[in-house]
Write a structure and sequence with these properties.
Number of helices: 8
Largest sheet: 5 strands, mixed
Order of helices and strands: HEEHEHHEEHHHH
CATH class: Alpha Beta
CATH architecture: 2-Layer Sandwich
CATH superfamily: Ribonuclease H-like superfamily/Ribonuclease H
Number of domains: 1
Number of strands: 5
Helix content: 40-55%
Distance between the termini: 39 Å
Radius of gyration: 17 Å
CATH topology: Nucleotidyltransferase, domain 5
Shape: globular
Strand order of the largest sheet: 3-2-1-4-5
């Protein structure tokens, strides 16, 4: 996939019609077998350009870290929130993702005037919102949120690896790679795993 910097066109248009603080929100970790789903919300400063902001999946890890630090330093506001495996199992991954995004938005100070979301609409927000298809590629605020969420979650997965290195969370970050599936087949699920995520190959081997 070609790496193209996300644009500020939509944010600039919204500011011209009166929305002062425009937040982007995104989440990472929906498709993982283990670890939380993490959401971030970011209000970029209109006069402080941050080079390299684009979909987090297109940015190498070391560069993601550097861009994330710039976002946190120069943004008007940013916040992160998560839903852990227990909550994911209780209410399902889609609802847990929405809750994490809602928490991230409501943790912003100041609260935004409008929220731009990658594809979804977030329930029970007290401000305007707009879903943007492929927003993490098209909208700089959403792309910035995707980077902050990705860096935050990767750090959490490294911490989980430090506590229990059997599963290789430092390599795959909880996604269903072959070596992760092999580790689960060998050791069973850990406290970090989502019990509601059951790959067919593991149905008969995991309690």
């Amino acid at each position: 996939m070609v790496r193209v910097p996300a644009m500020r066109t939509l944010e600039n248009t919204l500011r011209r019609v009166g929305f002062v603080h425009v937040a982007g929100v995104d989440e990472v970790g929906r498709g993982c077998l283990a670890g939380p789903v993490v959401a971030a919300a970011v209000v970029l400063h209109p006069e402080k350009h941050i080079p390299g902001v684009c979909d987090s999946k297109l940015v190498p890890a070391a560069e993601r870290e550097r861009i994330c630090e710039r976002i946190m330093r120069h943004a008007i506001a940013w916040a992160v929130a998560a839903a852990d495996p227990t909550e994911i199992d209780l209410i399902n991954i889609h609802q847990a993702s929405l809750r994490a995004m809602q928490r991230a938005v409501l943790a912003l100070a100041p609260l935004p005037d409008i929220v731009l979301v990658d594809a979804f609409r977030i329930p029970e927000l007290p401000m305007a919102q707009r879903g943007v298809l492929h927003g993490d590629r098209r909208c700089s605020a959403i792309a910035a949120a995707s980077i902050v969420a990705k860096v935050t979650r990767d750090r959490q997965m490294l911490d989980l690896h430090g506590r229990d290195p059997r599963y290789g969370f430092d390599r795959h970050k909880g996604y269903a790679t072959a070596d992760h599936l092999d580790a689960v087949a060998r050791f069973g699920y850990s406290e970090a795993h989502r019990r509601s995520f059951r790959p067919a190959t593991l149905f008969d081997t995991i309690e």
